[in-house]
Every structure is written in C-alpha cells, then in structure tokens.
Amino acid sequence: MTKRTKIQNYTEYISLRIVIFFIRLPPFKLAVKIGEFIGIISFYLINFRRSHVIDMLTQSFPKKSKAEIERIARNTYKNFARTVVEIMFFSIMADEEIKKLFVYTNEDLVKKSHAAGKGVILMSAHLGNWELTGLACSKIYPMSAVVANQSNVLVDKMIDNVRTNQGFATISRDGMAFRSVMKALKRNEIVVFLADQDAGPHGVFVPFFGRSTSTPKGAAIFALRVKCPIIIVLGVRQKNGVIKVNFTEVPMPNTGNEDKDIEAINTFYLKKLESIVREYPEQWFWFHRKWKTRPE
Fold first, then answer.
1. Of the candidates 77, 166, 181, which has an alpha carbon nearest to the alpha carbon of residue 122?
2. Which of 67, 75, 128, 170 is 20 to 30 Å from the Cα of 119, by its Cα?
C-alpha cells in the first residue's frame, strides 16, 4: 500500500469539512431529500461499482426482472446517500432528536441479556443506517464498537471523536483489539460487530443468498470463550423515515467443537440478515464485494 502524504490527508480532511458545512446549511429533512436526489443522480452519472451492484443483485434475485433489479440498484444509491447525510448530522443531534428516529421490537431481550452481567455481543450489518442504529443503542447501554481504521488519519480521528462524543467507545480492529474486547465484556459492556463483510481466507464459509461467503469469526469466538449472549440487531428505515430496530437472540451451540459452533452462529446470523435484506434489498450495502473470497 502506498504511504499517504500529509498533503493528501489534509486536502481530503479539509474537503470533507467543507462538504459537511454545506450539507448542514439546510434543515435536516431538506438535507436528507437533497442527499437522496444526489444518490439517484450518482447512479446514472457516476459509475462507482454500478455494474458490480447490478451483478450482485441479479445473482441474488434471479427471478426479478431487469427493470426491478435496476430499480433496487438505484434505490441502493439513494439510501446510501441519505445515510451519509444523516451521519454528517448526528454529531450535532440532541438525544431527543435521535430517539424520535427509532422504534424498537424485542428491546427487552437486550435488557435481559445485559442483566446477566457477562457482557453482550451485538452482531449488526451495513443495513439501513448502521451508524445511527449503533448510536441509538449506545444511548441506553454502555457500548463499544469494533471498527476499521480509515486510511486518512485525520478523517479517522474526526469520525472517532464524533462517535465517542455521542456516547460510544470504539475498538480498532488493529493492534490490541482482542484484549480490548475482552476487557469491555468483563465490564459488562455491549460490544458491536459489523459482521457482513468479506472476511478473506481466514473467515468461516457459510451460505448467503445461496452462495458460500467468507464471514468474520470474531463475534462468535468472543461469545463462545466468554460465554456471553449474542444478539443480532438490524435497523431498517421505514417509509416515514423512522428506523425500526429488531433484536434477535442467537441460539448458542455447545458441541465442544469450536469451529462447528462458529459456523452455526454465523449461519444463523446470515440467515436472519438475508431474510431482512430480501424484504428491504435497497437498504443493504451491495457495494461490498461480499463474495470476493471463494472456498478452496
């Protein structure tokens, strides 16, 4: 990987700050509408993985017509642009404003699991607005999120400050991630993993939309070793703009074979994610190269 220069970092950082400034000039609801319009225009004018998105949708929904696939792809861009705008606003949003954006189902499941005192792992995904979903949960419980570092250190620090200022800590995937997660769980905190990306050759291969895909092992490994519960948390945006957050407990296997138990946990997780993505296909992040790594 080419080493980044200070000039590159500062140029990107200042440009992002300027974009955020102008995005925040109109009221929130108007800014969101503008973001959606930009997303639709981007689908037609900017060829950012458009062919990849359409190809992945075509393989995942073979019975849908070409027109339906294009509509979902277009709305994927629209939803992502809206998500970006919302993220740019949430550093200045009051707690009451954030609460109005969410409704919950099975919320008592998290309370019950947290009361056990062993920590809780949340498995989430790049669905709806994943950043806002995590933020909303952090307003209720002490929470840390396992995150990837940005290549631009200035942008990375800015994003990290926004998250921590709004109430949840971050744990970098690099460095001392294992120790930090263990400590957080022992403090009876909630740790969030976004587990829907390609995990490379070190992931566990489980089915997703009928195709084997490499899935991160981390959440399952921690839960099995600490013996804490895993809850799947997925938030999907409704037509009125409110994000409906659903909590589902993962049945914890205990076969004595860690590899098989990890596979069972991730199979359950992806099955749940797939069922929601089938209902709200435009809200998942199809830009990912989810099926990039193939089994040997």
1. 181
2. 128
Residue spans of alpha helices (H) in 90-145 = 95-100, 107-115, 130-138
Among residues 129, 134, 291, 130, the alpha carbon closest in space to that of 215 is found at: 291
pLDDT, residue 154, reads 85
Report residue 172's pLDDT band, with 50, 70 and 90 as the boundaries.
Answer: confident
Instruction: Please name the residues in contact with 192: beta carbons below 8 A apart, sequence gap of 6 or more.
Output: 121, 122, 124, 134, 137, 143, 144, 145, 146, 233
pLDDT in tens, 75-116: 999 999 999 998 888 878 887 887 788 888 888 888 899 888
For residues 232 and 269, is the Cβ–Cβ distance under 8 A? yes
Mean of pLDDT values over 145-160:
81
Chain segment 2-13, per-residue pLDDT in tens: 577 888 888 988
Query: What is d(CA 217, CA 3) in angstroms, rounded to the nearest whole number?
Result: 29
Structure-token match 């990890």, residue found: 262
Segments making up each domain of the chain, as ranges: 6-283
Tell me which residue of 139, 189, 141 sits closest to 165, measured CA to CA. 139
Residue 143 φ then ψ, to 5°: -145, 145
Alpha helices in 5-102 (DSSP H): 6-23, 28-45, 50-60, 66-89, 95-100
Residue showing tokens 């089938």: 278
- Fill in the DSSP letter of residue 283: G
